[in-house]
Amino acid sequence: MMINELLPRGFTARPSSMEDLEAVTRLINTCEIAVDGESETSLDEVCTAWQMPDFHFETDTRVVFSPEGECVGAVDVGHRQYARAHMFGNVHPNYQGRGIGTYLLHVAEQRSQQFIPHAAPDARVSLGTGVSSKDQATQRLLEDNGFQPVRHFWRMGIDLDGTTPAAQWAEGLTLQTMAPGTERTLFEVDEETFRDHWGHIPSTFEEWERWMVKRESFDPSLYFLAMDGNQIAGFAFCHNEKELGGWVNVLGVRRAWRRKGIGLALLYHAFAEFYRRGVQSVYLGVDAQSLTGATRLYERAGMHVVKDNIRYEKELRAGRELSTQSVEV
């Protein structure tokens, strides 16, 4: 059977384009609200993902339309070093159970298979995706197609009321925000720190720059650096997503400076700054089984789990795992 035959009669599919940005974002938000009661994906986030280096609409996306021309399904596919492929797909709640999800899944797997010749010859190649723990229909679809749950990731949040404790800094540490021209230094520190996180595969500076700096919500005054002299000890890169709240997109402390309270101080400082700017809620994403104990830090800061996502994976080729799986303590 050809993949296109999986679509219901009268439904059509084509690669996405930037003209579909608003329609696809609305679709994603509709699906999020149906499953979890609120949306969390911004137009800026989707736009940034579609502008990543090595992303191609023609090969890496599909959008599905109903006979009436409504956007009812969409998927996009990316990769890290061609070995760790990932997909992000959605089907409108009113159109589920008609084979659209199966179609999008097959499109994503077919595209991911094309990455295999470009991966390191001995590398394990897999396709992964995240799904809300409440979305049992998608979990069944994935499992019926050979995917297995491998990890849980939490969205944690806190509602701010102005009572956040003041940040306490270890002796000799100072706080500053991102200065112009320091992008590559911050990228290198970010990469160094996140080698200790499960599933990490090194990215390129161009990928990091697009995701962290070249986006509408980028604000260097929300990129906080804990400095020990002229060395970066820890960092919190935050974005104000307006109606979606404040986000601590990346929080890290370098190995030599861990267990000095820097992560907690950075969080408290970020909370206070968001509150000063009128932001009522702050969120972040974290590996529920964090190798560095990040979940305990966030709970100590007053955050709680607001959403549980399950990462599913399907092995496309056996081999050497390139991503971080454990950390020497």
Report on this structure.
- The protein is α+β, with helices and mostly antiparallel strands and 329 residues long.
- The chain contains nine helices and twelve strands.
- A twelve-stranded mixed β-sheet has the order 1-2-3-4-5-12-6-11-10-9-8-7, with helices on both faces.
- The mean pLDDT is 94.
- Keywords: Acyltransferase, Transferase.
SS-derived structural category: alpha+beta
Number of helices: 9
Query: Multimeric state of these chains?
Result: single chain
For the biggest β-sheet, the strand order reads 1-2-3-4-5-12-6-11-10-9-8-7
Count of individual domains: 2
Question: For the terminal residues, how far apart are their CA atoms?
Answer: 50 Å
User: What is the H level of CATH, i.e. the homologous superfamily of the largest domain?
Assistant: Gcn5-related N-acetyltransferase (GNAT)
Contiguous low-pLDDT stretches (5 residues minimum) are none
Percent of residues in helical segments? 25-40%
Strands, total number: 12
Order of helices and strands: EHHHEEEHEHEEHHEEEHEHE
Beta content: 25-35%
Within the CATH hierarchy, at the fold level, what is the topology of the largest domain? Aminopeptidase
Q: Gyration radius, to the nearest Å?
A: 20 Å
Which second-level CATH architecture of the largest domain applies?
3-Layer(aba) Sandwich
Tell me the major beta sheet.
12 strands, mixed
Per CATH, the class of the largest domain reads Alpha Beta
User: Per the principal axes of the C-alpha atoms, what is the gross shape?
Assistant: globular
Average pLDDT, all residues: 94
